[in-house]
Design goal:
It is a single chain. By secondary structure, the protein is of the alpha/beta class. It has one domain: TIM Barrel (Alpha-Beta Barrel), CATH 3.20.20.70. It is 39% helix and 19% strand. Strands 1-4-5-8-9-10-11-12 form an eight-stranded parallel barrel, surrounded by eight helices. It has a two-stranded antiparallel sheet with strand order 6-7. A hairpin with a 2-residue loop joins strand 6 and strand 7. The N and C termini lie far apart (45 Å). The structure holds ligand PBG. The site of ligand PBG has 12 residues, from helix 6.
Length: 324
């Protein structure tokens, strides 16, 4: 008798497929990145990220209300810093009245219960466009992590719930954790970009924030895409230093890393579907070469299947609208 097992039985119709489906996507899965700029009444589309915008604080209010009404409960804030405020040490990052600090307060006032995560890295503030302090063409690790710790405290003072260091300096999680504890911010969490690769998929993001490195590349701190074991070492170190959530970035090209980290460690795992991934899908859809909504949903489902607990994605709003 052959075949004894007919796997197609459980695929015969939508009802049976629904019954045996292993993963579902909900609004709880998402973390929504938001780009903030100075000014008033600004909602400007990012050239290489169709239908994604930079917001001034007033239009940010409208956007955050919309996200909340859709059931989205976490945002990740990035700021575009005016050129005249950039320097090598990222001094503006510590300004209690800086754009990030005002953005945090604005979101908090708009939706007190939304989870506010903030990007912690020097690149948007750096005259060199690097994630750390530069000396003689090198990125200086230990001086940088001191600034990152101060920056994290400043975000916590403004009302951030979770700081998200995206810089890939060594030892920064411990230095941030200690600074937060010292200042009494024991409930402020850390989502660490633990396995962040030196990736060409970040291109559109650097357009969005005008934060491309002025010289060289980020390969002395971000990881080599060839490496897998190194991702485990980085992640283990960040957890030991106090990370509450660890992240893999980019997403689609690194699903093997997501799964391996999920299997190995017991903290929540986040994945970042980065700007280039978004841009690729948008561009192919614009040309009529791919079905936008279907590819979008499939890409998000792939993150869940790979084991992601948190998905940072520029598609969050579109996905939830499609689901409801
Ligand atoms: C900066 C930062 C980057 C991204 C998030 N934080 C860019 C980089 O490292 O150059 C990329 C996000 C995206 O491409 O969507 N530290």
């Amino acid at each position: 008798m052959f075949p004894l097992r007919r796997n197609r039985r459980l695929r015969a119709n939508a009802a049976i497929r629904g019954l045996v489906r292993e993963n579902i996507i909900t609004a709880n899965d998402f973390l929504v990145p938001l780009f903030v700029v100075e000014g008033k009444g600004i909602k400007e589309e990012i050239l290489s990220m169709p239908n994604y915008y930079r917001h001034s604080l007033d239009t940010l209010v409208t956007e955050v209300k919309l996200l909340w009404s859709l059931g989205l409960r976490s945002v990740l804030l990035f700021v575009k810093v005016p050129d005249n405020l950039k320097d090598n040490k990222g001094t503006e990052a510590l300004n209690a009245d800086g754009l990030m600090q005002r953005a945090i307060k604005t979101v908090k006032n708009t939706c007190p219960d939304i989870i506010i995560m903030t990007d912690v890295a020097l690149d948007p503030y750096s005259s060199f466009g690097h994630d750390g302090i530069v000396e003689e063409g090198k990125i200086i690790n230990d001086d940088t992590i001191e600034v990152l710790a101060e920056m994290s405290v400043s975000h916590a003072e403004a009302g951030a719930n979770i700081v998200a260091p995206s810089d890939m300096m060594d030892g920064r999680i411990l230095s941030i954790r200690e600074a937060l504890e010292d200042e009494g911010f024991v409930d402020v969490g850390i989502m660490s970009y633990s396995a962040k690769y030196a990736s060409a998929f970040y291109g559109p993001f650097r357009d969005a924030l005008d934060s491309a490195p002025g010289f060289g590349d980020k390969k002395t701190y971000q990881m080599d895409p060839a490496n897998r074991h190194e991702a485990m070492r980085e992640t283990e170190m960040d957890i030991d230093e106090g990370a509450d959530i660890v992240m893999v970035k980019p997403g689609m090209a690194y699903l093997d890393i997501v799964r391996e980290i999920k299997n190995e460690f017991d903290v929540p795992v986040a994945v970042y579907q980065v700007s280039g991934e978004y841009a690729m899908i948008k561009a192919a859809a614009e040309k009529g070469w791919l079905n936008h909504d279907e590819v979008m949903m499939e890409s998000i489902m792939a993150f869940k299947r790979a084991g992601a607990d948190v998905i940072a994605s520029y598609f969050a709003k579109d996905v939830i609208k499609l689901l409801s």
